Amino acid sequence: MKSKGILGAIVLIGIGILFGALLVSGFGLVRPGLADINIGADKPPVSLDADATSFSKAFIEVAETVTPTIVQITVVSERTDSKGWDFFFPFRDMPQEQRGSGSGIIISGDGYIITNNHVVENATKVDVGLYDKRKFSATVVGTDPLTDLAVIKIDANNLPAAYLGNSDNLKVGQWVMAIGNPLALTSTVTAGIVSAIGRGNLRLITDSYGVENFIQTDAAINPGNSGGALVDLSGAVIGVNSAIATRSGTYIGYGFAIPINLAKAVAKDLIATGKVNRGYIGIEIKDIDDALAKALGLDRPRGILVQRAIEGGAAESADIREGDIILKIDGKEVNKSNELQSYVASKTAGTTVSLIIFRDGKEIEKKVTLKAREEDKKSEPVADKGKSDPKKDTKLNTVSFEEIGLAVSNLTQREKTSYKVDNGVKIIGVKTFSIAEDQRLRDGYIIVEADKKKVNDVNELKDIFDSKRGSAVLLKVQDANGNSWFIGLEVPEK
């Protein structure tokens, strides 16, 4: 029996060996090793030429070179309330949080770092993480809310400092890269183009002296990128990432950076004195649209209109007057208010700038020595000292200009006292979708001048409008708060 058992075992083993050999050798019932399988094509479908390879290499080199100059900033700050803005500062839009984060750019080997003001605003504790994973406590050297910039300092040496380029040379369509720490993802690099330059009126800085002259880019920027670098393909920092347009709290295609030329000027002042010794011209200004250009006698919309020269300010001292049009500053054309503001913001008090202005059909040059902000004495609008006709004070005569969509009435003496004016007519009706509404005229505004002439009643305004039919008329308008400005109003033929 024992011999039969051994014989059976030998037979079974033999059958197993034979069956295994057959499977491996012939029937293909067991998959061979993965090393024996060829997957994918033998070569890439496209052979990059030298230009394409060089272009790709530029991004790689910039990322490798610049990333070590970007730091991560974490802060503990006082609680703030959400503003609910569509355009928002990423850090500031974190309601009821005491911790936040952002980015910064190393601007000197001994530890000075530039970032956004809103990253360190109200901070009680600031920490910095370097690319090499070292961490430092930081002190806030100075802040400038008017440009949303700040400088902080860590106690370190031999740090890799970023190269700060020239943002004045930027062109729309130029390739750029955004480097920072979005959503707590350290050392993140994105790429895009410059979508626009000189972008203003975003209302990110609510102070009337705030400077908004942003570089717009489609390089992806998210919360945490604030204070990081926008760089060109030479590795030069040309902007400090500051804000995004969003309805969701994250990137939807539009990011904004502060031009590095402005940032450099602010950083130097903050490092030297802890504050910005910024110069001011001392004027209230307005962009010029097509109707205003026609009313001012310009061949096309260009320059910046001076709405008011502040009493005691630099402009008044240089004989700059309301109604003047600033065409150039230091030889540079300016056609948007924020372009002028940004340029002046990069200059210190005491600096003399050259203005080319358009006045009475002529271009003239004026030298203006900028003053510090505290030297600009604001004053209430001065009422016209001309005598009013008492016979007209109680008249309630009205005139409607149907083709303009505007109705006006004479001022009562009480209204003159309330508005602090001695002349003018009151707007009592503005038609929807009319020329008047397009120029943002509103009920309750006072028209104090037309065609650079004082308006005392509705009949005088009618005469002026009749004389300007088929062209445009320059109006000086004032609101109930005493704010005044110029507009151009086209007067159609009847």
Q: Averaging pLDDT over every residue, what do you get? A: 83
The rounded Rg comes to: 34 Å
The count of helical stretches stands at: 10
CATH third-tier fold name of the largest domain = Thrombin, subunit H
How far is the first residue's CA from the last residue's CA? Answer: 129 Å
Number of strands: 26
- What is the CATH-assigned architecture of the largest domain? Beta Barrel
CATH uppermost class of the largest domain: Mainly Beta
For the biggest sheet, the summary is: 7 strands, antiparallel
Number of domains: 3
Helix content: 10-25%
Which consecutive residue ranges, at least 5 long each, have pLDDT under 50? 82-96, 375-396
Q: Choose one word for the global shape.
A: elongated
Beta-strand portion reads 25-35%
Query: Structural class, from secondary structure content?
Result: alpha+beta
